Amino acid sequence: MSEQQKTRISVDIYGQNYKMVGSETSGHMRLVASMVDDKMREIHSHNGNLDVAKLAVLTAVNAVNDYIKVKEQLELLEEELKKLKD
């Protein structure tokens, strides 16, 4: 995708404005930003003493943890599907 075809939007995450550029739709990018904002606020509600940097790292750790779980589930489902096809 060329530079002219990239989506550019402004989003608010945890009270800060960020410019996002990507090949996804603006709706998708806003959903991602909203989910990051929600997760940061959730983590902050459990530990209000975290500074923003630590809060961001814990949000990233949570996101990668969720990604790994979903990836493992997908791999198991793909194995089951392959067995059913054979």
Automatic annotation (TrEMBL):
Domain of life: Bacteria
GO cellular component: cell division site; cell septum; cytosol
Record keywords, A-Z: Cell cycle, Cell division, Cytoplasm, Septation
Subcellular location(s) per record: Cytoplasm
Annotated GO biological process: division septum assembly; FtsZ-dependent cytokinesis; septin ring assembly
InterPro entries: Bac_CellDiv_Activator, Cell_div_ZapA-like, Cell_div_ZapA-like_sf
Purpose of the protein: Activator of cell division through the inhibition of FtsZ GTPase activity, therefore promoting FtsZ assembly into bundles of protofilaments necessary for the formation of the division Z ring. It is recruited early at mid-cell but it is not essential for cell division.
Subunit organization: Homodimer. Interacts with FtsZ.
Protein name: Cell division protein ZapA
Organism: Psychrobacillus glaciei
Gene name in the database record: zapA
